[in-house]
């Protein structure tokens, strides 16, 4: 029974962790979900506790570093984050989908990864 519980918890915690990692560059609770997934895994797996501690430490370190930076550096980080979000939305076909709703059939909206 213990093995079944650990496998189920590992699977669920892993899915939560992957979902959180996917959401990190987007506005919203990406890091919170990453830490929740690691927290779930840490209840049964020592490696997850170590990764969770490491990740929280470096997340807080990064946020303190950003807070100390000149507004130009903050703007550059925000611009890079925005570029990552826009590129991933384009690659996933979101622009083509919304363009289709609006009747726009522009070729550059289509993702190079989607066929059809």
From TrEMBL:
<dbReference type="InterPro" id="IPR019099">
    <property type="entry name" value="Uncharacterised_PGPGW_TM"/>
</dbReference>
<feature type="transmembrane region" description="Helical">
    <location>
        <begin position="72"/>
        <end position="104"/>
    </location>
</feature>
<feature type="transmembrane region" description="Helical">
    <location>
        <begin position="7"/>
        <end position="26"/>
    </location>
</feature>
<keyword id="KW-0812">Transmembrane</keyword>
<dbReference type="Pfam" id="PF09656">
    <property type="entry name" value="PGPGW"/>
</dbReference>
<protein>
    <submittedName>
        <fullName>Uncharacterized protein (TIGR02611 family)</fullName>
    </submittedName>
</protein>
<feature type="transmembrane region" description="Helical">
    <location>
        <begin position="32"/>
        <end position="51"/>
    </location>
</feature>
<keyword id="KW-0472">Membrane</keyword>
<dbReference type="InterPro" id="IPR013434">
    <property type="entry name" value="CHP02611"/>
</dbReference>
<keyword id="KW-1133">Transmembrane helix</keyword>
């Amino acid at each position: 029974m213990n093995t079944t519980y650990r496998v189920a918890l590992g699977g669920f915690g892993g899915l939560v962790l992957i979902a959180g990692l996917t959401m990190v560059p987007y506005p919203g609770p990406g890091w919170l979900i990453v830490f929740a997934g690691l927290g779930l895994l840490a209840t049964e797996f020592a490696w997850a506790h170590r990764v969770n501690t490491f990740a929280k430490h470096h997340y807080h370190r990064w946020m303190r570093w950003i807070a100390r930076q000149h507004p130009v550096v903050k703007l550059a980080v925000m611009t890079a984050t925005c570029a990552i979000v826009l590129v991933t939305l384009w690659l996933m076909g979101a622009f083509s989908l919304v363009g289709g709703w609006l009747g726009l059939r522009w070729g550059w909206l289509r993702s190079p990864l989607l066929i059809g």
